[in-house]
Amino acid sequence: MTAGEVLVIGGTGDARQVCQQLDAAGVPYTLSVATPTGQQLAGNIQGRVRCGRLEADEMAAWLQENNTRWVIDASHPYAEIVSRNIAAACAQAQVLLSRYQRPEQMPELTHPLLFYVATLEEACATAQALGERILLTTGSKDLPRWRAGLAGKTLLARVLPVAEVIAQCTELGFGVGDIFALCGPFSAEFNAAFYRQYRVEVMITKASGAEGGYVEKIAPALEANIPCIVIARPQPVVTGEELLNGQDAFAMRLQRWLAAQ
Q1: pLDDT by residue (tens digit) across 13-44?
Q2: How far apart are the first and last CA of the chain?
Q3: Please, which residues have CB within 8 angstroms of residue 194's CB and are 6 or more apart in sequence?
């Protein structure tokens, strides 16, 4: 078996854990990440790592060239466009696709200050009446949309400590007191102190699960009577038995795949 026959996609901790299971099973594979940051997060995995974004047609060509037989989409739960491109490429190349789905935390939680929304635009509309100092813990990709949707508000951007991300924040008008370049996840105690220190009035996040420190963000905010807005996950492109909810589900799917070889 060659490294190209199994392709894991994702620059996340989830992808790294999937790779570690493949390492333990002695399965050669390639991990595909979009950025050097994702490459760093891969750590000391045993598989081959390729770095760089691929459009659907480019990915389909890669799959065919490498005789890929199984693709595992372990990209971020909110990387909807990436997942759709992966699905299109696998359909074109006729390759088996599994989607690793990071488990959600406390999806049934209700609270008077907890607001679930479907889109970024709905989050902006909800936040308008809740406060002036708004902490964004949703990553850097959509900062221009947050700027446009929450014009006039004081936005605090908690982002990865990557030079190009900090430069993007600066270009969008975030000042030195508005940019917090930190690599999470963080403890509940850290977040509670952060909310107090920077006078957070509203916190916006995503249902990012344990990997994203979801509970540790939500719980101290609600305890401090800070409204929380949670953007729901997009519906997964993959359904049925190839939608793998958690590492245990992936372990079982890996065993079935190995048994069929």
Answers
A1: 899 999 999 999 999 999 999 988 888 888 89
A2: 10
A3: 180, 186, 200
Per CATH, the number for 3-103+235-259 is 3.40.50.720
Nearest-angstrom CA–CA distance, 19 and 30? 9
pLDDT tens column, 170-229: 999 999 999 999 988 999 999 999 999 999 999 999 999 988 899 999 999 999 999 999
- The rounded distance, in Å, linking the Cα atoms of 79 and 255 is 27
pTM: 0.88
CATH superfamily membership of 114-231: Nitrogenase molybdenum iron protein domain (3.40.50.1980)
φ and ψ at 180, to 5 degrees? -125, 95
According to DSSP, residue 53 is labeled -
Topology agreement, domain 3-103+235-259 and domain 114-231? yes
- Do the Cβ atoms of 225 and 113 come closer than 8 Å? yes
Q: How many CB atoms lie within 10 A of CB 200?
A: 20
The residue ranges of every structural domain in the chain are: 3-103+235-259, 114-231
